[in-house]
Description:
About 20% of the residues lie in helices and about 35% in strands. By secondary structure, the protein is α+β, with helices and mostly antiparallel strands. It has a single domain, classed as CATH 3.30.1330.110. A hairpin with a 2-residue loop joins strand 1 (about 10-20) and strand 2.
Amino acid sequence: MPEDKPKIRKVYVFVEETHEEMGNRLSKPTRKTAAAAVFKNPFCGKYQEDLSLLYQYSEELGVLLTQKAVAALGIAPEAVQSYGKAAISGGRGELEHCAALMHPALGKPMRANVGGGKALIPSAKKMGYPGAAIDVPLGHKDAAFVRSHFDAMEVRLPDAPREDELVLVVSVTDSGRPQPRVGGLQVEEIKGEDGLR
């Protein structure tokens, strides 16, 4: 019988700060962080039609990981500018297990812990093995058309996922890319009405 709560083996938190780009010192470093949980896949090695248990897991893990990611930046939740999510399944799971983890049940705790968020949360999923990397896509939390915030953060866990594990990753930033200059909607122009503009 699967456990009602995720059986977590490890939690990782990463912070990436960029201080200089192309020889230009940034007036303020751009920062992104990711928090990842490694836990046992309750449906390892067997087909399961109803994946709603993973929705439950993602809701609980969404609170934990988003709070850890925001705390790693040392900012108020409202100061988060962009977000993203990703999942990796070990070899005895399936891609649909990753999709179930990134169900809208995850979006609710993520948004609640970043002071809102009208835009869709970008996501990525893959099958993997210990040390496999995943690029967590990032987008502005209130307006998807803000090109300066189209980005990603690579996450690689040295010992996960094992064959019977899943990894869930939440990533947030306090800024866009360093030196953005490809046009598009500017942060100060965001209306935040429809999640697009």
